Amino acid sequence: MSLSAREFWGVVHGMVLGALFLLAYGGGLAGLYSLRPDWVTPAGVRERLMRLKLGAWGMTIAAWLTVLTGTWIVYPWYRAKPPVDADLRFFPRAYLLAEPQRAGWHTFGMEWKEHVAWLAPILATAVLYVIYVYGEELANDTRMRTVLMVLFTLAFVAAAAAGLFGALMTKVAPIL
Amino acid sequence: MTAVEHVGKALAALVAAGIGCAALGVLTTLAELSPGLKSVLNFYDPVGPLSGKTTVAVIVWLIAWYALARRWHARPPVMTSALVATFVLIGVGFVGTFPLFFELFTAH
Questions:
Q1: What's the pLDDT tens digit per position in A44-73?
Q2: 12-31 in B: which are within 8 Å (CB) of A?
Q3: Burial letters for A40-57: b for 16+ Cβ neighbours within 10 Å, e otherwise?
Q4: Is the pTM of this model over 0.90?
Q5: Is the ipTM of this complex over 0.85?
Q6: In chain A, what is the greatest distance between 2 CA atoms, to the nearest angstrom?
Q7: Which chain B residue has its CA at the smallest distance from A110's CA?
Q8: Are B4 and B74 in contact (CB under 8 A)?
Q9: What is the C-alpha R_g of chain B?
Q10: Could you tell me the sign of the dihedral formed by the alpha carbons of A40, A45, A51, A53, in that order?
């Protein structure tokens, strides 16, 4: 039982960091939603704020590591140009574009995934920063909390679109 | 930190994030429109133009964040206007990175 270097980085990029991102999003969203002074005591607000910060840190770090490993480590293997007479199964981009029935996985799926994913870490970083700037005051500011929940969710949507196409494309054209 | 300062800092971070997202969307679309720009954005050949689009967008985001934080730290903008701008800019980012949109501009 073993993984090649490419498979290892594919797993780190798509499964390990992706799962961490999902967990952190759930925790962060629940933390923002429940950070209300009418629901918890002042001590409870402090405790929830700590959990919220942990969730936001987790989501932000996972988002950055996912796009950095995806763009700079995994993506070059995906888009490598095959030499003449090469087995295209080892060159996923060329393999997909070689058949019109498969080309959409690249022209739509990969083109969307590789770009939209980068919105997630930018948005997650902004949310994390605002949580620190506001601190416990966030519990009293319903509008800012709502804005942060929407931004957190947009970051999740961007990452989920990228993750979904990543998972589907790994089935059609795995990086071997 | 005073209430004014934290509102200014928070809005600077949010609008700058919108600017960063919009920068990526605009660069993605412009790179389709202009093969010359696409070539300029090819900072690292194994990654292709994606290397330049994402690097430039991140730099634009960080510069915008720094500039807005300096400007708004003592005098924050009207919150509603800043939040509307943030969401419009994020929308530009989502639309500009959507293939069915940016491929409308692909140079042939």
A1: 888 899 989 999 999 999 999 999 999 999
A2: 13-14, 16-17, 20-21, 24, 28
A3: eeeeebeebbeebbebbb
A4: yes
A5: yes
A6: 69
A7: B99
A8: yes
A9: 16
A10: positive
